[in-house]
User: Fold this.
Amino acid sequence: MARNKPKTEKKKANPDGTMTVSGHLKELRNRIAVILLVFAAAMITLVILAPHLIMFFTEMGGRYGYQFVVIAPQEMLMQQFRLAVIGGLIVASPVILYEVYGFLRPGLEKGERSILRLALFLGLLFFGIGVVFAYFIAIPFMLNFLISLNNDEILLSSIKASISVASYLDFILLMFIIFGAMFEMPLISVVLSRFGLLTPKMMTKARPIAIILIFILAAFMTPPDVVSQIMVAVPMLLLFFFSTMLCRIFYKRRQEKREEAEEEGEASPEG
Assistant:
């Protein structure tokens, strides 16, 4: 007596080869599960390393004469947990971006896939460069300048500066985010100009307004002192001018490719 063959699993695909809605949802579920597992593993690891990270950041301030205190019983615990969450997101970010790319990949054309891969890689790279710039250049300069304002003999006679660990880490993390995001400007200009959404003419016209907005943003994003605002505004201005140059280069290449395609299209009927 012949055994019944096991029923084969139905493919999650439409007759035209495209994936069904249930197939997309299953794939999305699997990719989210991978992201959550990587994030959880990174966060658990960083919970253990969080005290060392706090010491690493506070030692930088200690070199400039800052003294740190905790003003609430749970402050250190909360800061360790916060660093673990933020660090977990940073460690898991390559996996997050890879899974996002994998989910979007089937719906993209070949040229769009290349652009997206390059944008994701360069996005991580430029953000990292911004964080490194903040850690080695911007933050030490700001810390040195701000502590020098407190070194007045009259103030020192009656006031002693003791900085909350939470306030100090807020400042450090804010600077990392600001400078990391700032260094994404050239990449954004390249991607938008590659798709024809941004032109050199648009950036040239927007230059006066952009300069004003940059200084306004710097004033809102930094502590209320002129030096911190200038330390943020000047790199943003340089990145804006660099972005304009890149926009001009990539937009010109796009126009040249379009003209070549039009010429080939006009020549093909004659052949």
